[in-house]
């Protein structure tokens, strides 16, 4: 296991370099550029000023020169400076990171607490009314657009009922825990919806495949209580593939937070990404996308390691 983890870690180095090249080329190939923010003001900007602006940012250099300059700085931990705010990109990301982690962790725990028991219950009571209801809600959750669901929750619980705030992370002048939880409920619910729908179906299918195996029948024949057979013997093995999927989906939460944070004006990295995209802020875009890419690769590795740890039959040698 240790050698496998080391080998995969070493393989990440050329992978990250390849990812950075692709991302850099895509960003550079996008229409427009940072100078479009000057033109968007509606005032006349001479071609000389635009050329001087691009020269100051180094955008007049060949693409391969710009990339290697960015890569050399990134290897030292310097992701450059934002074109719009002139702040270090790494500082801006770290400032927004706690809010995104808070949202992702809340959505992840909410999805796990609801989806796993729902999947187990649906498998034990298959073809019951609640099983069909859970299946219908799961399909609805998978098919429902996230932005539409977020707007509906805002309209119902924030505008009409007034129970919860519609946006932001906290109320101005109120930094208490209760106020933060109220602001967190709606975005965490929206972000967790897709994972509740998917994980509950995965759990149901995996549990159904386990409860009819020989070792479960043997446990019943020993006179063990049905509750112990289901929750101890069957659940442990049924959870193996589901836990691996849950580990892979951690990186997906980051991309899902982009839409959720935008809808609820949550001051995290997802909202910062949208703002940097509209402003054509190349260094900030590179920093955020590379961080998301690192999350995907790292959690893929953790999922593989976790799968081998949960199932000793898996060999990585």
Summarize, please:
With 317 residues, the protein is mainly α. Helices cover 76% and strands 0% of the residues.
List keywords for this structure.
mainly alpha; MetI-like fold; 2 domains; 12 helices; 76% helix; globular
Write structural notes for this entry:
This protein has 317 residues and is mainly alpha-helical. The chain folds into two domains: 2-74, no CATH class; 91-310, MetI-like fold, CATH 1.10.3720. 76% of the residues lie in helices and 0% in strands. The protein contains twelve helices and no strands. The protein has helices at residues 2-29, 36-39, 47-57, 63-74, 89-124, 129-143, 146-160, 177-210, 214-221, 226-263, 269-278, 282-310. Helix 5 packs across helix 8 (177-210) and helix 9 crosses helix 10 (226-263).
What is the strand and helix layout of this fold?
Blueprint: H1 2-29, H2 36-39, H3 47-57, H4 63-74, H5 89-124, H6 129-143, H7 146-160, H8 177-210, H9 214-221, H10 226-263, H11 269-278, H12 282-310
């Amino acid at each position: 296991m240790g050698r496998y983890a080391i080998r995969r870690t070493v393989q990440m180095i050329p992978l990250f370099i390849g990812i950075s090249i692709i991302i850099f080329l895509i960003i550079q190939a996008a229409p427009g550029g940072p100078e479009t923010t000057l033109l968007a003001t509606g005032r006349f900007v001479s071609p000389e000023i635009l050329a001087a602006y691009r020269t100051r940012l180094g955008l007049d250099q060949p693409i391969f020169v710009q990339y290697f300059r960015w890569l050399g700085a990134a290897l030292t931990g310097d992701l450059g400076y934002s074109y719009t705010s002139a702040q270090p990109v790494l500082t801006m990301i770290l400032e927004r990171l706690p809010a995104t982690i808070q949202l992702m962790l809340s959505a992840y725990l909410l999805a796990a607490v609801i989806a796993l028991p729902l999947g187990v219950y649906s498998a034990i009571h298959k073809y019951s009314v609640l099983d069909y209801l859970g299946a219908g809600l799961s399909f609805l959750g998978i098919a429902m657009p996230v932005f539409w669901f977020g707007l509906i929750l805002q309209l119902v619980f924030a505008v009409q009922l007034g129970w919860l705030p519609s946006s932001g992370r906290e109320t101005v002048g109120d930094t208490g825990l209760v106020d933060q939880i109220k602001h967190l409920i709606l975005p965490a619910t929206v972000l967790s919806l897709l994972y509740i729908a998917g994980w509950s179906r995965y759990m149901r299918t995996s549990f159904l495949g386990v409860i009819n195996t020989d070792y479960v029948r043997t446990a019943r024949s020993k006179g063990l209580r049905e509750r112990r057979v289901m929750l101890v013997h069957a659940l442990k093995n049924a959870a193996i593939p589901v836990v691996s999927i849950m580990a892979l989906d951690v990186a997906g939460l980051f991309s899902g937070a982009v839409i959720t944070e935008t809808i609820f004006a949550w001051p995290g990295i997802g909202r910062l990404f949208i703002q940097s995209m509209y402003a054509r802020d190349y260094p900030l875009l590179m920093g955020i996308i590379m961080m998301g890419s690192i999350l995907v690769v790292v959690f893929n590795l953790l999922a593989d390691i976790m799968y081998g740890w949960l199932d000793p039959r898996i060999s990585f040698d």
